[in-house]
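step=encode ok
step=design start
structure_in=
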């Protein structure tokens, strides 16, 4: 393999890692939204 092939593979790997990180952050944000809504519901029960 030549250096251009390695560069392409590295580029794809970087974008896969970035996409995975963004998916992880989105999932954490959705989880936090659910928890905040639950806390607000519990607070409204007072």
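sequence_out=
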């Amino acid at each position: 393999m030549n250096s251009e092939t390695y560069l392409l593979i590295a580029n794809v790997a970087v974008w896969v890692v970035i996409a995975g990180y963004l998916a992880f952050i989105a999932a954490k944000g959705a989880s936090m939204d659910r928890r905040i809504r639950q806390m607000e519901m519990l607070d409204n029960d007072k």
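step=design ok
step=annotate ok -> DSSP finds one helix and no strands in the chain.
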